[in-house]
Amino acid sequence: MDAAKNLFETLANFKANDSSGLTSQQLLINYCKQVLGSTENLHYDYKEKDDSSNSQLSDSDKKNLAKAVSGFSNSSGGVLIWGILNKTLVPKPIGDIEQFLANLLHLAPQSCDPLVSGIDGVWLPSENKNGEGFAIIYIPESVLPPHRVVIKVNEVKNHYYTRSGDSFVIATHTQLEDMFGRRPKPVLILSKRFSAQKNNTKNELGQLNILIGIRNAGRGSAEAPLLALKIMHPYRIHDNGIDGNGRFGLPPLISATDTHEKSFGASTDVIHSGIVRDVAKVIVKIPNTNENSKNPLSNLTIDYKIAAKGIQLICGQDLTTSDMLFDKFEYELSHQINII
């Protein structure tokens, strides 16, 4: 399953998930804050409705929708989250949410030429339970790009958009050539793979090993890949590489601008379709605590940049909460295969 579809199904499940005792709004906001963060990335975007008191689409709403449909479908797909303020993640529920979702789903496919198929959506109720809520729109990657905005709204009509980092930008001439030529293209995503080692000392249960790299989820090969990482304190990139012998998945590069950022890349390297290239490793020591103790771990925050020949720079931030680090450690230990 692609990243955008997986995110959409995760958010949609909050409507039916009441086992935690939290409302749909609380589940949504908590997930946005703890997992997605306030920095929009390649596969999702927060949108505030122009007038949240009603379900009607203003020109501003139509413009935001059309840019997203064109940009996500021309790229690797994505999810629009309506009713949350960008950056602050403060909820701003939309009135008559069920009708608002219907209006979005009616306009979205025909906002571009050719029509974009496979668009889906759900709505989540707000805590007020008076018809207000949040709309989640899934826009898949198109197999027939490029898609041009055709709705009659100034600034966006007749433009082709793509997703670049956390923005929708007008496609370049080269990008349009690629899309019109139906050339398979790479889709590069930050990859994290986990393994665990048990220790059981007085102070430590063990360590969680996190391999960080690039996954090519597209159909084309990624030439000259580059990955730049900034790991927030107290964690860091392991000096001995991914194998303990100083080997990294891509050659380390010297950074002249930011000493806290470590870059890896090679002009002669290629990451083929469907391949995960592990590049660097972070080690998290898991402390030995009892159930009543406060979690002493810090969240793992990774600022990253991904690039390759012929694609625009992808920038984002990945967050693994302290609770998730504990859960990953326990999960990996429980699924280890004991070989006698």
Cα separation of the termini: 35 Å
- Given as residue ranges, the uncertain stretches (5+ residues, pLDDT < 50) are none
Q: What is the CATH top level name of the largest domain? A: Alpha Beta
N-to-C SSE string, H for helix and E for strand = HHEHEHEEEEEEHEEEEEEEEEEH
Instruction: Tell me, briefly, the overall form.
Output: globular
Strand content: 25-35%
DSSP strand count: 18
Account of the protein in words:
The protein has 340 residues and is an alpha+beta fold. It folds into two domains: 3-180, Methyltransferase, Cobalt-precorrin-4 Transmethylase, Domain 2, CATH 3.30.950.30; 188-334, Immunoglobulin-like, CATH 2.60.40. The protein contains six helices and 18 strands. The chain has helices spanning 3-12, 24-36, 59-73, 97-107, 173-180, 322-334, and strands at 44-47, 78-82, 112-113, 120-125, 133-139, 148-149, 161-164, 167-170, 188-198, 204-216, 222-223, 226-231, 252-253, 262-265, 270-271, 276-287, 300-308, 311-320. The strands form six sheets. It has a five-stranded antiparallel sheet. It has a four-stranded mixed sheet with strand order 1-2-5-4, with helices on both faces. Strands 9-10-16 form a three-stranded antiparallel sheet, covered by helices on one side. The protein starts with a helix and ends in a 6-residue tail after the last helix.
